[in-house]
Amino acid sequence: MANISISRAEFGLFQKLIFEIAGINLSEAKQVLLVGRLSKRLKALGFVNFSQYYKHVTGGDDPAERQTMVDLLTTNETYFFREPKHFDHLRQLAVNRRRGSVFRAWSAASSSGEEAYTMAMVLAEVLGDGLWEIIGTDISSRVLAKAQRGQYPLERTRGIPGELLKKYCLKGMQEHAGTLLITRELRDRVKFMHSNLMQPSKGLGQFDVIFLRNVMIYFENDTKRKVIHNLLPYLKADGHFIVGHSESLNGLTDRLLPIAPTIYHLRDAP
């Protein structure tokens, strides 16, 4: 069945909407992607054009469909132990933590959970079943559901070191063949929540380290500045802020200083 066509004016409405919601700048080149991902929703709801669908998701009567639209238009790509030096740094931070305090880490664009569970493996190895906690947040409820299940195709686990694979992952059998399940021990230590970087959820508390990796590449500089401003109140005075290797905070904030490539701490950190 053919996709429903979209006018230039209609595409402009959705560009503005997803920017307002998630800070994502949909370029003209993404028009085909938007049509491909949303046409099925229009047909399922009985709409004949994108103007009708736009009125529906902005009318306020169907927040679930608005979330579905966000899920379909956000890109989620991640894998276990991506950019390993960051996890080496996390390991060192955990080793040097203040005794008696809870070490808290935030995967602020957690996608389907691989980053958060990688953090959990590292902290479990260093701190055992002691005082540590991981929060994973994302704007997409679809990927958060995957993260909470903690079940992945075997081919997505290639980056996990063999000893950690055996210790923290269960190989699926019968109907679950070809998949891997993160152990209950680890899943219980990671809490996944819905949160928007443009308006982070209140009550998250403060963190020793915030991972915000490989998401700001989708933002314009003004949006990047806003996101950093939004997240810094959640960083402890001696906390660390980590971005992806293709990203930099140069020119975006004067409150964070680099201590290594893509690794920062607060300017007035003790």
The helix fraction, in percent, is: 25-40%
- First CA to last CA: what distance? 61 Å
Which stretches of 5+ consecutive residues score pLDDT under 50? none
| Average of per-residue pLDDT values | 91
Radius of gyration: 20 Å
* Beta strand count: 10
Largest sheet: 7 strands, mixed
- Helix-strand category: alpha/beta
Portion of residues in beta strands equals 15-25%
Judging from the principal axes of the Cα atoms, what is the shape? globular
Query: What order do the helices and strands follow?
Result: HHHHHEHEHEHEEHEEHEEE
Number of helices: 10
Trace the largest sheet across and list its strands: 6-2-1-7-8-10-9
What does this structure look like?
By secondary structure, the chain is α/β, with parallel strands linked by helices. Helices cover 40% and strands 19% of the residues. It contains 10 helices and 10 strands. It has helices at 8-22, 31-45, 50-58, 63-73, 84-95, 114-127, 141-149, 162-168, 184-187, 221-231; strands spanning 103-107, 132-138, 151-153, 169-171, 179-182, 190-194, 207-212, 235-243, 256-260, 263-266. The strands form 2 sheets. The chain has a 7-stranded mixed β-sheet, covered by helices on one side. It has a 3-stranded antiparallel β-sheet with strand order 3-5-4. Helix 6 (114-127) links the parallel strand 1 and strand 2 (132-138). Helix 5 (84-95) runs parallel beside helix 6 (114-127). The model has no long low-confidence stretch (mean pLDDT 91).
